[in-house]
Specification:
Distance between the termini: 59 Å
Shape: elongated
CATH class of the largest domain: Mainly Alpha
Strand content: under 5%
Structural class: mainly alpha
Helix content: over 70%
Mean pLDDT: 87
CATH superfamily of the largest domain: Tetracycline Repressor, domain 2
Number of strands: 0
Number of helices: 10
Radius of gyration: 18 Å
CATH topology of the largest domain: Tetracycline Repressor, domain 2
Number of domains: 2
Low-confidence stretches: none
Length: about 180
C-alpha cells in the first residue's frame, strides 16, 4: 500500500508540473491536476496542503541543476550565462510559471527562500570580500534581467544575437561581480 501512495503522489506531482508549466498558476486548478493524475482534488490537498503547496513542490521537482557551485570561480560568469542560453524549454517554462505565480503571498515567500538557497547562498559561499552578499545578489539580479529580456519581453535584438557574443559580454559583466578586478 505505501508504494501505491508514493506512485499516486508522484503522478499528482508530474501532472501538476505539466499543467502549471503549460497553463500557468492561474490557469491550473486542483481539479485539473487531480483529473490529469487520475486522483480526486481532495487527494491533491491531502498530499500537498494547498494549490500553493503543490505548485512549489512541482517547481522544485523540475528544477535543473546549474553550475553555480562547480568549476573554477574565474570562469563562472561565462559558464553560467552559457547555461542560461542553452537551457531547454522546460527551464524556460518553469521560469515563466514561477514568474506568473509570484504575486501569491505564500509563493512569493517561498520563491525568495529558494532564490537564496539555490542561487545567492551558494554563490556567496564561493565569493570573498566584505561585499560578497551584495555581489551575490547583484549577480542573481543580472541573470534574472537576462531571463526577463529573453523569455518575458522577447527582446528581438537579444534573441537574434549570436549566443557566444552574449556569453562573452554578459558573462564578463557577471564575472566582474563574482571576481572583481
Amino acid at each position: 500500500m505505501p508504494e501505491d501512495r508514493t506512485t499516486k503522489r508522484g503522478a499528482i506531482l508530474a501532472a501538476a508540473s505539466r499543467l502549471f508549466i503549460d497553463n500557468g498558476y492561474a490557469g491550473t486548478s486542483l481539479r485539473d491536476i487531480g483529473r490529469d493524475a487520475d486522483a480526486d482534488a481532495a487527494l491533491v490537498i491531502h498530499y500537498f496542503g494547498s494549490k500553493d503547496g503543490v505548485f512549489l513542490a512541482a517547481m522544485r521537482s523540475v528544477q535543473a541543476e546549474h553550475p553555480i557551485s562547480e568549476g573554477p570561480i574565474d570562469t563562472l560568469g561565462e559558464r553560467f550565462i552559457r547555461y542560461v542560453l542553452e537551457a531547454g524549454p522546460q527551464v524556460r517554462a518553469m521560469f515563466l510559471a514561477i514568474l506568473r505565480a509570484s504575486d501569491s503571498d505564500n509563493i512569493g515567500v517561498e520563491l525568495r527562500r529558494q532564490h537564496e538557497l539555490g542561487f545567492v547562498g551558494p554563490l556567496r559561499a564561493r565569493l570573498g570580500g566584505a561585499d560578497a552578499d551584495l555581489r551575490a545578489s547583484l549577480a542573481a539580479s543580472l541573470v534574472a534581467g537576462l531571463l526577463y529580456a529573453l523569455w518575458v519581453v522577447g527582446d528581438e535584438q537579444l534573441l537574434a544575437a549570436d549566443h557566444e557574443e552574449i556569453v562573452a559580454k554578459y558573462g564578463r559583466l557577471m564575472q566582474e561581480l563574482v571576481n572583481p578586478a
